[in-house]
Amino acid sequence: MATIEMKNIVKKYGDGFPAVNDVSIDVADGEFLILVGPSGCGKSTLLRMIVGLEDITSGDMLIGGDRVNDLAPRDRNLSMVFQNYALYPHLTVYENIAFPLRLAKWKDADIDAKVREASKTLDLDEHLERKPANLSGGQRQRVAMGRAIVRDAQAFLFDEPLSNLDAKLRGQMRTEIARLQKKLGITTVYVTHDQTEAMTLGDRVAVMKRGILQQLATPRELYEQPVNLFVAGFIGSPPMNFLPATVENGEVTLPFGTFPLPADKAAKTEGKGLLMAGIRPEHFEDVSVIEEGKVDSARTFAAHIDVREWLGDQQYAYVPYEAEAKVQDQLKELARESDSDSLRTQLVVSLDAASSAAEDSDT
Ligand code: ATP
């Protein structure tokens, strides 16, 4: 059993605001858990407390059901992969991967079998005699993973392992990590600030902000049912649009007009004064690509596109708007609350690739 249980974990450096503030997360045996959040949210600190590289101020850390708060890192039997790979430059690929086994005083023949098995899994068998300096970034990353998987560790811990790679390689390595984790079925905790990695790799994702766990859920739940503005704005790319809104008589008034609202949404928001409506970019459509007769004129508005980005399979259109003076302060407050840059007064709309909506057009 390699469960990891974090119970009311707090970390304070000095007298300041806690870097990790009362976080409780149970990671199931074999689960892939992601810790995600903006820089400084405490995700690395939390990971380092699991490994034992950082003392826990209060709370309990249990691995495989045993309390490990006072256990040295080497006695926790965890494998960690760091952002900078932490390879030994003077050792060959073979010796880098063999390193933890030599430390554990394995026999040469057993080490050889294990290193060859891992290097095959990771497609490194042709590079075993090379030194790290003569490898590409992706190959170095794989050596670091090789070193992590040769040990029969209880869990893998990754601290932003792909952030030094270019976008294409990052995508490839992401798939490799997912494949490897599935194959080995080993409990994994993975820190990233990249929400694409979070959404694609995790069985569940823990979103953190300023030391506090905001939401712990599957990627789909995070996307469809964010618990607050921060999570709503953080998950999704381009980010969710937040628009000032008022609801009266079953209709919502947005900067672009007044539209009918489904009864359940209207019932919850009717007469509540000024609200924020969250609308994802893909929930807009260009009427010119909708079949005739299927356009709902009550939900249509004209918008002036000032910038358009064509991505091949879809397009992003940017539609600036004026926010009324009376909602400016509220927008600023929301920008603070959501830590989001999506509160600039523009709408981001994701359009079908076939849309002919042009830049500088009213569509
Ligand atoms: P990043 O993505 O930038 O690495 P993070 O989410 O991993 O950020 P942490 O590195 O865990 O964040 O840091 C959380 C908070 O704790 C930050 O405010 C940071 O400045 C502070 N902190 C981290 N390490 C120390 C330390 N050794 N001494 C004092 N404060 C620290």
From TrEMBL:
MF-aspect GO terms:
ABC-type transporter activity; ATP binding; ATP hydrolysis activity
SMART domains in alphabetical order: AAA
Q: Protein name, please?
A: Sn-glycerol-3-phosphate ABC transporter ATP-binding protein UgpC
Presence of keyword ATP-binding: yes
Region forming the signal peptide: none
User: Which keywords, in A-to-Z order, does the entry hold?
Assistant: ATP-binding, Cell membrane, Membrane, Nucleotide-binding, Translocase, Transport
Against CDD domains, the record matches this protein to:
ABC_MalK_N
One GO location term (cellular component): ATP-binding cassette (ABC) transporter complex, substrate-binding subunit-containing
ABC transporter domain spans which residues?
A: 4-235
Report the InterPro entries cross-referenced here.
AAA+_ATPase (IPR003593), ABC_transporter-like_ATP-bd (IPR003439), ABC_transporter-like_CS (IPR017871), ABC_transpr_MalK-like (IPR015855), ABC_transpr_MalK/UgpC-like (IPR047641), Mo/tungstate-bd_C_term_dom (IPR008995), OB_MalK-like (IPR040582), P-loop_NTPase (IPR027417)
Q: Give the GO biological process terms.
A: carbohydrate transport
Q: Which organism is it from?
A: Aeromicrobium fastidiosum
